[in-house]
Structure formats: structure tokens, C-alpha cells
Specification:
Elements (H helix, E strand, L loop, with lengths): L6 E6 L2 E6 L10 H16 L5 E6 L4 E3 L30 H10 L5 E5 L2 E3 L1 H4 L6 E5 L3 E3 L13 H9 L1 H10 L2 E3 H6 L5 E3 L4 H15 L2 H14 L5 H15 L3 H11 L10 H4 L14
Parallel strand pairs: 2-3, 3-5, 4-6, 5-7, 6-8, 7-10
Antiparallel strand pairs: 1-2, 8-9
Length: 290
């Protein structure tokens, strides 16, 4: 297990928990934290025993209070200070976007347990997660317009898909901080919980997935729903659906899924994400994907 300095990575049963661990700084985001999160995701993706990943923040006040704007946070407040003429230069790339793209590529379900303040990148990183649960004390803010910048971390792609364009525009254009009840009403979060109930609720959801589903099926489903829903024509979804059903229906997991249903018992799926993904995965790397 890695010895991280700004996050904690813990495994209990089939669930990995990644805790943003700078409570004295309200878990403010740094480039170093981003690298540690990416490394922990690599560990979880490679571990077939891990079936779901929960994200939360250390302490009782914050999930993540946005980017650390102090020198300790990594230098310039938002981007590199190095002079760049070519905007395609790698140094121009937004660090929050690098993180959300890595979250997007994850093979395991991602569950956010937002335990307090989540503004800036603290809010946008959660958009790439599959389920967002909130404590009653959670506060969200897409505050970029109040800082003279724009939404980052690919949130212009994620947020409208989750809450709709009108709600996304309101939250981003006003830049105001809003509470968990408004987040629930606006479709940003799945459910709101008393602080003591937040992690148990996240674990219950993770266990429901882990104990009842095929890991290969879930990995494929996650990739299909995130990647195929924005495409312009359903034919691409039909193509991937068809390939997936054809391949997976002949596998050991499908056999076990049917047998366990007929025998009225919990399934014991043998498939492993590390070895049993369909041969056309990842299909988006194909030259004719679009």
C-alpha cells in the first residue's frame, strides 16, 4: 500500500475509500493531491477485489474547499506562470481536467460522500463520479465567475448532462454557494443524509453493487453510459450494445447470473475486470469510433 501525504487510501471488504486528507486546509486541492488520487485510482483499477470506490474528505467541515491558492498549493493560483505561445502546449492543460479525465476512465463505480464544503474543483471533481451523496452540512459552489475565470475540470461537459443546461448556467453564472437541499432539488446529488449516516449510506450503495453484480458488466455499463449517451446517433450505441451482449452472453458471468436466478441464490460471478473485459474494449480507441 502506498504511503500518501495528502490522501488516505483504505480498503475494507470490496470497497476502497479515498479520503482527501488536508483537514487543516479544508482539504484544499493541490497538484500533489491530484497525482496521489490518480495513483490510488490506478491501484483500485488493478485490484479485482475492489468493486467500488468512495471519495470523502477528512474532518467535519469540508470535502474540498477548492484549489489551494497559497504557494504551498503548487505555485500560481490557477495555471502555470511559464510563458507559452502555443495554447496546445501541455503546460496549458487544466490540472482539474486531468483529474476528472482520469476519474472518467476508471473501471470501478465512483461514489462521492460529500461531507462539507465543496467549491471550485471540490465541486467539479465530483461531477465525474457516478453517484453523489451529500451530508446535510454539504455546501457546493461553482464559483469561477466570482474569481474571474471559467468552470474547469471538464465541468462544461459533465454538469449540463447531470443537471440540465438551465440549472448548470444558473449555478455557474451566479457563482453562488448553495446547500445540500438545493443540490438535491437541482439533481446534483442522489440523496442527503445526516452527517453520521453519510458514509454508511455510501457503503450500502457500494455493497449493493459489489454483492449482486458482475464486475465486468458494471465496468462495461459505466463506460457505455458515460461514453455513448452524448453521441449524435443511437447507431453507435446499438453497435456497442450488440457487441457487448454477443460477447458477454457467452461468458461465465452470464451463465452464473442465469443459474443463480433460477436457483434463487446470491450470484458468485467469476469474471475479473483485469482479464475478462470484451476483446473490443476500449472501443473508443478504434479509428472508426465516431
Amino acid at each position: 500500500m502506498r504511503d500518501y501525504s495528502q490522501i488516505r487510501y483504505e480498503i475494507e471488504g470490496p470497497i476502497a475509500t479515498i479520503t482527501l486528507n488536508r483537514p487543516d486546509k479544508l482539504n484544499a486541492y493541490t497538484r500533489h493531491m491530484a497525482r496521489e488520487i490518480a495513483d490510488a485510482l490506478d491501484l483500485a483499477d488493478a485490484d479485482d477485489a475492489v468493486r467500488a470506490i468512495i471519495f470523502t474528505g477528512a474532518g467535519e467541515r469540508a470535502f474540498c474547499a477548492g484549489a489551494d491558492l497559497t504557494p504551498e498549493g503548487g505555485g500560481g493560483p490557477f495555471s502555470s506562470d511559464a510563458p507559452v505561445d502555443d495554447l496546445s502546449d501541455d503546460s496549458v492543460r487544466d490540472g482539474g481536467g486531468r483529474l476528472t479525465l482520469r476519474l472518467f476512465q476508471c473501471k470501478k463505480p465512483l461514489i462521492s460522500a460529500c461531507n462539507g464544503v465543496a467549491v471550485g474543483v471540490g465541486a467539479t471533481m465530483q461531477l465525474a463520479m457516478d453517484f453523489r451523496l451529500a451530508s446535510e452540512t454539504a455546501r457546493y459552489g461553482f464559483v469561477f465567475a466570482r474569481r474571474g475565470i471559467v468552470p474547469e475540470a471538464c465541468s462544461s461537459w459533465f454538469l449540463p448532462k447531470i443537471v440540465g443546461i438551465s440549472q448548470a448556467l444558473e449555478w455557474c453564472m451566479t457563482g453562488r454557494v448553495f446547500d445540500a437541499a438545493e443540490a438535491l432539488n437541482g439533481g446534483l446529488v442522489r440523496s442527503v443524509h445526516a452527517p453520521a449516516d453519510l458514509i454508511p449510506a455510501a457503503r450500502a450503495l457500494a455493497l449493493e453493487i459489489a454483492e449482486n453484480t458482475s464486475a465486468v458488466s458494471v465496468a462495461m455499463t459505466r463506460a457505455m453510459l458515460w461514453r455513448l449517451s452524448p453521441t449524435q446517433h443511437p447507431m453507435l450505441a446499438h453497435r456497442i450494445d450488440s457487441r457487448s451482449i454477443f460477447r458477454l452472453s457467452k461468458g461465465a458471468d452470464a451463465k452464473e447470473g442465469i443459474q443463480s436466478f433460477l436457483e434463487k441464490r446470491p450470484p458468485e460471478f467469476p469474471g475479473k475486470v483485469s482479464r475478462d473485459m470484451p476483446d473490443f474494449y476500449p472501443w473508443w480507441d478504434e479509428p472508426d469510433y465516431e
